[in-house]
Amino acid sequence: MTPRPPFIAIGLLSACVLAYEVLLTRLFSIVLWHHFAYMIISAAMLGYGASGTLLTLLKEKIAPHFGAAYVMAAAALALLMPTAFLLAQQIPFNPLELLWDNTQPAKLLAVYLLMMLPFFCGGLGIGLVFAHFGKQAGRIYACDILGAGAGSLGVIGVLFLMPPQQVLSVLTALALLAAAIAVAELKMRPKWLMELFFGLAVLAAVALPGMQVHSSAYKDLSQALNITGARVAEERSSPLGQITVVENTRVPLRHAPGMSLNATSEPPPQLGVFVDGDGPSALTKFDGNLEPLAYLGQLTSALPYHILGSHEQNRPRVLVLGAGPGSDVLQALYHRSAAVDAVELDRNVTGLVRQRFRDYAGNLYGQSGVHVYAAEARGFVNTSDARYDLIQVALLDSFGTASAGLFGLSENYLYTVEALKAYLSRLTPDGMLAVTRWLTLPPRDALKLFATAATALERSGVTNPAARLAMIRGWKTVTLLVKNSAFNAQEIAALREFCRTRSFDLAYYPGMRADEANRYNILAQPYFFEGAVALLGPQRQDFIGQYKFYIEPATDDRPHFFRFFKWNAAAEIFALREQGGMPLLDWSYPLLVATLVQATAASVLLILAPLALSRCRRSLPGAPVALYFLAIGFAFMFMEIAFIQKFVLFLSHPLYAVAVVLCAFLVFAAAGSWLAGRWQAAGKVTFAVVALGAMALLYLAILPGLFQALIHLPDAAKIIISVALIAPLAICMGVPFPTAMMRLANASEEAIPWAWAINGFASVVGAVLATLLAIHLGFAAVILLAVLIYAVACVALTGFAG
Amino acid sequence: MMEEVLADAAYTSSYSGGSGLSPGVIAAMEKVERHRFVPGWLSAFAYHNRPLPIGYGQTISQPFIVALMTDRMRAKAGDKVLEIGTGSGYQAAILAEIASSVYSIEIIEPLGKQAGGLLKSLGYRNVKTKVGDGYYGWPEAAPFDAIMVTAAASHVPPPLIKQLKPGGRMVIPLGTQFMTQYLMLVEKQMDGSVITRQILPVRFVPLTGGH
User: Fold this and answer.
1) Is residue B161 predicted with pLDDT exceeding 80?
2) pLDDT digits (tens, 9 = 90+) for B109-122
3) Count of structural domains within chain B
4) Is residue A402 predicted with pLDDT exceeding 70?
5) Looking at residue B188, what is its pLDDT?
């Protein structure tokens, strides 16, 4: 037997697998839509679990060829990472047809199983090492997890340097390098094998062409490029998204969302800016002349300027959150704003306006009075001391994705009760917040936003929120105003006049009569007015409860603003699918449930069933051991996913939260594993679980306040604080797995791959289940549940020891 | 297919702003062969009441939605109709069975040429098609009694409203491919002012208890 496990190779292999997982979430955002990330996490875990099953079943056959099997697994990973993605792209899966075409679920399953294959190979490599060097599980686990941490963080850095399709080549090269190093570490013969893999690695890095990524034909970018005369004028890529600028001189983009039907002017020439193929937002040609921008006064989002224009001091100071390529900044300039602070997270987007299309955009972001900040909206608002007459939350998502329910699962911290409270705290005494959303029928976004605003005002100590809210709707957009003081008669007159001249409908203002609603864009019933009145009255909770869409205000603990799905309306809507009911289904949520069912079925079939049916089941340990590995798999996933979400606000971007939190969890869990290997005390799992439970509860209590107090710190300091907070928790979470693995290695070494498989199963299902539970119960509840499951693991361990 | 369409229309009529489908629309839907407008490999589904892909990221709409939109346009013999977004040509063919002349513009060149050729080969002499920018309508043929804008737009082009006759109607489906969220019916009054009706194609009350 080789005396020493291939520590470097295993770290590298693990880094590849994790980097690939993160990369796939980016690639699937470009090809389809971003919520397929859950499917990727689940496919990854399924691959790991299935590899454990295979190892359990074939351990006797594989054991004599350990070295060759390990190297082959690494080489297969290298081959399958690009190939599986390439093949998955050939499957004509179209999520928009999921409920029309009964072959689509099978296509989704095929994509899922294909994406599992590389992870299966990665898992096989790592599992082989565990099985072969079981007694050194602590150190192996430490290397595995350390590599995983480095991979997940490193890929983010690489994504800043090159587009995602090129990163695939880098990962292929790294997997081949892992094979080459394994040959050396395991002292395998012939020696030229190492040189061969090394040569292939260099070849893959240098010569493998960047793969073509084919976006769905139904994405906004694909549709725009089909139009006669369209061409890509610029492409930029970063982990925040792939930016594509489309120019069309024959059929120009004319983006004026929901422009009044009374308008006679059309927008000036524009470029379409797409992020991951979604959009567009407009980069408008501007030469300093405000006249061609008249269309910006014909949108519902222009309302606050007309109300502020009725004030004596009528040149407002404006904050635009989500400035993108600048439409809302232009709108502010058109309405003679005194100063505009524009906040945009992606420097690639602001760079388009500042550099590449500077002349086209008329140096918009360099105009006097305009200041651009590269920051996340909540982070900026929490750290800025400035006061504004108007805060505009820009409408940057596309009508298509919003109306198809594509965002149902994504967290959005822009529209929570806490967010609205924070915005209100940055307003001047007579200032106002304006939020514009796409119109959906029956009303969804608008009423949820209205309820959220009413709650935010109440929680800010306002006794009569009804006096501070106003809402109007056009034929395609809705604009909500939340004022820092009560609306006065002059302002209400300006609001009514604005709507009258543009044929926009009044949805709510203080003192509005029912007969003023529903005049220009006539609905079967004045749903918006009725909803607004109900949400301001004593029957708010009844109304929310009886409404067939989920319009409970979003909070930082349950920030799924775009989730409107309710189970009790699902059957009715599904029955109406052929009568035009399909768009009401908010299909991303059922898709998550379908993913959970698919993940559970696939993991039962590929992980558990082969074990249950095999001859070796008689020699496997009993139920307490299975329960233990199941429990720690679920608990680790629940904890990890919930904490990533908890840190999104503090670190100001989901991507940074994923990278920092995931990396910290993995690295310090690795440290915990290493400690577990050295620490011989009995009861160390119980000790670790008690400690992590206490810490999790403490964090739940103190994190919101702590984040609020420290959010003004620079990014580097916040990252260090995040890592410091996660470290002790993760160290404790690193103890249970290797401790039990080592115990198994002493008792029945052949059960190690079996335990690996069961843990994999729990992780597959746990990844999706955590998201589903968070949507319903909130992230705090998911963390509490994780602590409870760890406690169950402790009990199971007693049976296990006995 | 027609039984389903008629049943759907009857079921949803009070919510979709009308009272079932007019005989003219029913006759047109029965006459036009949908399988001619569907890619060969999908012809088995041509008479299913569902949207189907036709290439270039476009779809042929669900027959029920086609019937509903056509009905709400209230086009009649003698009318001149404009369609923005020819797509497969199916909607233009249905309109051609009802109105005297149909003008249809497609923004995607290969699709426009294909649909134009198909309509010609099927003998629709009262349909004129062209490939180009639909934003400015078809000024040479304006004004129109009815306009249908099936190509998604962030706003209704002012030139189209100008080209609609007083008393005329414009129908715009809003949503995505495969999912029509609601229909917008633009009515130009005799004084030139405009109101819209936003029609949910489905019988669905958002409050439980049927308020």
Assistant:
1) yes
2) 999 999 999 999 99
3) 1
4) no
5) 93
- On whether residue B208 sits in a domain, the answer given is no
Chain A residues within an 8 Å CB radius of B203: 576, 579
Q: Token pair of A254, please?
A: 């004319």
Mean pLDDT score of chain A: 88
B211 found inside a domain: no
Q: Which two tokens stand for residue A87?
A: 């093949």
Q: Which whole number is the average pLDDT over A272-300? A: 93
Are A40 and A28 a contacting pair, CB within 8 Å?
A: yes
| 3-class SS string, A555-576 | CCCCCCCCCCCCHHHHHHHHHC
Half-sphere exposure of A802 (CA within 13 A, CB side): 8
Specify the pairing of strand A469-473 against strand A505-508. antiparallel
Query: Which residues are CB-contacts of A37 (< 8 A; sequence separation ≥ 6)?
Result: A25, A28, A29
Query: For the residues A199-213, what does the mean pLDDT come to?
Result: 82
The band of A615, judged by pLDDT with boundaries at 50, 70 and 90, is low
Q: Is residue B210 part of a domain?
A: no
**Parent domain of B37:** 2-199
Three-class DSSP labels, A776-789: HHCHHHHHHHHHHH
Q: Which pLDDT value is given to residue A401?
A: 47
Q: Return the exposure string of A329-362: e unless at least 16 CB atoms fall within 10 Å of the residue's CB, then b.
A: bbbbbbbebebbbbbbbbebbbbbbbebbeebbb
User: What are the structural domains of chain A?
Assistant: 1-216 (1.20.1250), 280-564 (3.40.50.150), 620-802 (1.20.1250)
Q: CA of B121 to nearest chain A CA: how many angstroms apart?
A: 24
Structure tokens of A344? 């945009």
Q: How far apart are CA A498 and CA A306, in angstroms?
A: 7
Chain A partners within 8 Å of B179 (Cβ): 96, 403-404, 582-583
Q: For chain B, say whether A368 makes contact (Cβ under 8 Å).
A: no
pLDDT tens for each residue of A674-719? 888 777 666 888 999 999 999 999 999 999 889 888 887 888 899 9
Return residues 215-244 of A near B (CB < 8 Å): 216-219, 222-223, 226-228
d(CA B211, CA B192): 35
ipTM confidence score: 0.91
Tell me the C-alpha distance between A306 and A545, whole Å: 36
Q: What is the mean pLDDT of residues A755-765?
A: 79
Chain B CB within 8 Å of residue A516 CB: no
Give me the mean pLDDT over the A190-195 stretch.
Answer: 87
Per-residue pLDDT tens over the stretch A542-554:
999 999 999 999 9
d(CA A352, CA A11): 39
Residue B207 located in a structural domain: no
Task: Say how far apart CA A642 and CA A639 lie, in whole Å.
Answer: 5
Residues in chain B closer than 8 A to A400 (CB atoms): 152, 175-176
**In CATH, what number is assigned to the domain containing residue B83?**
3.40.50.150
**Taking the model in full, what pTM does it have?**
0.90
